[in-house]
C-alpha cells in the first residue's frame, strides 16, 4: 500500500541560467513559446547530464497544455529515470507545482502520470491526495491519471487498490476511461478473467463497454492462450450490439502473430476479405512482421506487394521490418530496393539495419552500392559520420 505520509523535500537549489543561452546560444532574439519547446525537445534527445536536462526544462517553461511540451516532459523524465536521478525528478515536479499557471487539475494529472513513468508511485499517490491543499479539486480526471500512472509503472496491485478504495474514499464515480485502464491492467498482468466481474459492475452502473474494452480483453486472452475466452468475448460484443470492426480484427491478427501463429492470422485476413471488409495498412504490417519473424520471407514480400496493390500505404516501420528481415535472410538485393523506396519517402532504417545491409551488399560483390549507401548516410547524418567511416573502412577495396 502506498504511503500517504507527507514528502519532505530538500530546499531547491537552482543554478542561474538564461533560457536564450541554453535553448538558442547563437541568437539574441527572444524565442517564442513554440520555438522554446522545439529547441528543448531537440536538446533533450541527446542530453544525458541530469542537471543540464533540468535546466533545459526550466528554460523552456514547459506546460502540459502543449503537445510538444508533453513530449518534452516525458522525454526528460525518461532520461532522468534512466540515470536513476529520482531526486531530481521529485525536485523538478514539486518545483513546478509552485508555478501559478500550473496549479490546475490538468497539470496535477500530468505530474501524476510522469511520476508513474519514473515508477515513483508513492509520489503519484501523494500528488493526488494533496491536491486540495494546493487549491485544486480532485475529479475522475485526476483519478484516471493515477490509475494510468500505476499502469505505466506496471504496478498492477496498486491499480487494483486504487480502483477498489479511492472512488469511495474520495467520492468519485468511475467512468469508461477508468474501467478501461483497470481492464488493461488485468489483461497485462495475466488476470484477464477478472474482467468478467468488472463488466458486471459496469452493467450495474450503466457504463457501457466500448471497442477498446473488448479489444483489450481479446489481447489479454490471446496472450494467456485462452482461445475459448476469445470466442466468449466476441459473443459478448454481439450482446452489446457491437460488431467486430477493423480494430478488433487487427488486435486478433497482431495477437496471433506475436504467438507465432501467422498462418492463423492470415486466415483471419481472408475472413475479413470474404465479409467485404477492407484491411488497412496496420493489418498488413502486423502480418508482414509476423511472417518475417517466423522466417517466412516470401509470404512477407507477397503480403507487402498485395498491400500496395490494394492501395494501402506502408509506413516507415513496415519498410524497416522488411529491410531488416530480408538482410537477415541474406536477400540483400530485395532489401536494397525496399530501402531505397523507403528513403525516398524520408524513412531511413536504423544504424544497425543499414550496417547489416551495407556489409551484406559487400558480401555479394555489390561494393559500389554499399559505398553509395554509406555516402548517403554520412551526408544525411553528419553526427554519425565517424561511425559510417569505420564501416566504410571495413569494406573491400
TrEMBL record:
InterPro entries: PPR-containing_protein (IPR050667), PPR_rpt (IPR002885), TPR-like_helical_dom_sf (IPR011990)
Domain of life from the UniProt record: Eukaryota
Pfam families found in the cross-reference section: PPR, PPR_2
Keywords: Repeat, Transit peptide
UniProt PPR repeat ranges: 175-209, 210-244, 245-279, 280-314, 315-349
PANTHER family: (WILD MALAYSIAN BANANA) HYPOTHETICAL PROTEIN, MEMBRANE-ASSOCIATED SALT-INDUCIBLE PROTEIN-LIKE
Family per record: Belongs to the PPR family. P subfamily.
Full protein name: Pentatricopeptide repeat-containing protein
Organism: Rhododendron griersonianum
Amino acid at each position: 500500500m502506498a504511503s500517504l505520509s507527507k514528502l519532505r523535500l530538500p530546499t531547491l537549489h537552482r543554478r542561474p541560467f538564461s533560457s536564450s543561452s541554453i535553448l538558442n546560444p547563437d541568437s539574441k532574439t527572444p524565442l517564442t513559446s513554440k520555438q522554446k519547446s522545439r529547441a528543448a525537445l531537440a536538446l533533450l534527445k541527446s542530453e544525458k547530464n541530469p542537471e543540464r536536462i533540468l535546466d533545459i526544462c526550466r528554460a523552456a517553461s514547459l506546460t502540459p497544455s502543449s503537445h510538444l511540451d508533453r513530449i518534452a516532459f516525458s522525454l526528460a523524465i525518461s532520461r532522468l529515470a534512466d540515470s536513476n536521478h529520482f531526486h531530481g525528478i521529485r525536485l523538478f515536479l514539486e518545483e513546478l507545482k509552485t508555478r501559478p499557471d500550473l496549479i490546475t487539475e490538468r497539470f496535477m494529472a500530468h505530474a501524476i502520470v510522469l511520476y508513474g513513468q519514473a515508477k515513483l508511485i508513492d509520489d503519484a499517490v501523494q500528488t493526488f491526495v494533496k491536491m486540495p491543499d494546493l487549491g485544486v479539486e480532485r475529479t475522475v480526471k485526476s483519478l484516471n491519471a493515477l490509475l494510468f500512472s500505476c499502469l505505466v509503472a506496471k504496478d498492477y496491485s496498486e491499480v487494483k487498490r486504487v480502483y477498489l478504495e479511492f472512488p469511495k474514499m474520495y467520492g468519485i464515480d468511475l467512468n469508461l476511461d477508468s474501467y478501461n485502464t483497470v481492464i488493461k491492467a488485468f489483461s497485462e498482468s495475466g488476470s484477464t478473467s477478472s474482467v468478467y466481474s468488472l463488466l458486471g459492475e459496469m452493467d450495474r452502473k450503466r457504463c457501457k463497454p466500448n471497442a477498446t474494452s473488448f479489444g483489450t480483453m481479446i489481447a489479454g486472452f490471446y496472450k494467456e492462450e485462452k482461445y475459448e475466452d476469445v470466442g466468449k468475448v466476441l459473443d459478448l460484443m454481439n450482446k452489446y450490439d457491437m460488431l467486430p470492426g477493423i480494430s478488433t480484427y487487427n488486435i486478433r491478427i497482431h495477437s496471433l502473430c506475436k504467438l507465432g501463429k501467422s498462418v492463423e492470422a492470415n486466415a483471419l485476413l481472408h475472413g475479413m476479405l470474404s465479409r467485404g471488409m477492407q484491411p488497412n495498412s496496420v493489418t498488413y504490417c502486423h502480418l508482414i512482421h509476423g511472417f518475417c519473424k517466423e522466417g517466412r520471407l516470401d509470404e512477407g514480400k507477397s503480403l507487402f506487394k498485395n498491400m500496395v496493390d490494394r492501395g494501402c500505404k506502408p509506413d516507415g516501420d513496415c519498410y524497416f521490418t522488411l529491410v531488416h528481415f530480408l538482410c537477415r535472410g541474406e536477400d540483400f538485393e530485395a532489401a536494397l530496393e525496399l530501402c531505397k523506396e523507403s528513403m525516398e519517402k524520408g524513412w531511413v532504417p536504423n544504424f544497425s539495419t543499414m550496417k547489416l545491409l551495407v556489409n551484406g551488399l559487400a558480401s555479394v560483390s555489390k561494393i559500389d552500392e554499399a559505398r553509395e549507401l554509406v555516402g548517403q548516410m554520412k551526408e544525411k547524418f553528419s553526427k554519425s559520420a565517424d561511425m559510417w567511416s569505420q564501416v566504410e573502412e571495413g569494406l573491400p577495396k
